Amino acid sequence: QVQLVESGGGLVQAGGSLTLSCTVSGLAFTSYVMGWFRQAPGKEREFVATTRRSGVSTYLADSVKGRFTIPRDNAKNTVSLLMNSLQPEDTAVYYCAAGDPRYSGTEYITRRPYKYWGQGTQVTVSS
């Protein structure tokens, strides 16, 4: 059974930091591209960040570049989202996802390649 379990969400003041973690089981972690998406109330789920299988190559949405990073630890089957300089507009439920590695690079900012999803963790940034 494939499981992606996010943790680390919470309430933080604007300008603060949070680290989200996603622990994966039930699949060959190093065979999957990993991503983070988020969904704010009343909005579509949007891409935040993705990391290739080795963890060397990453890509982030323009809205979070320079503030977020997406490290992965293949030895521990985890992918994290390090979030700094958080702003109220970062408030959302954050989801991690495991993606089929056979898609082209640009497709990983869409939901299409991602086969498995976590249940989400709430991040709330107060002003």
Question: In which range does the helix fraction lie?
Answer: under 10%
In percent, how much strand structure appears in the residues? over 45%
CA(first)-CA(last) distance = 40 Å
- Uncertain ranges: none
Please write the string of helix (H) and strand (E) elements. EEEEEEEEEEEE
Q: In this structure, how is the largest beta sheet organized?
A: 7 strands, mixed
- Bulk shape: globular
Mean pLDDT, rounded to whole units? 96
Oligomer: single chain
Number of strands: 12
Q: Structural class, judged by helices and strands?
A: mainly beta
**Rg from Cα:** 13 Å
How large is the count of helical segments? 0
Briefly say what this structure is:
The protein is mainly beta.
Task: Give an account of the 3D structure.
The protein is mostly beta strands and 127 residues long. Helices cover 0% and strands 48% of the residues. The protein is built from no helices and twelve strands. The protein has strands spanning 3-7, 10-13, 18-25, 33-39, 46-51, 58-60, 68-69, 72-73, 78-83, 92-99, 114-117, 121-126. The strands form two sheets. Strands 2, 4, 5, 6, 10, 11 and 12 form a seven-stranded mixed sheet that branches. Strands 1, 3, 7, 8 and 9 form a five-stranded antiparallel sheet that branches. A hairpin with a 4-residue loop joins strand 8 and strand 9 (78-83). The protein is globular, with a radius of gyration of 13 Å. The protein starts with a strand and ends with a strand. The mean pLDDT is 96.
Please outline the helices and strands.
Blueprint: E1 3-7, E2 10-13, E3 18-25, E4 33-39, E5 46-51, E6 58-60, E7 68-69, E8 72-73, E9 78-83, E10 92-99, E11 114-117, E12 121-126
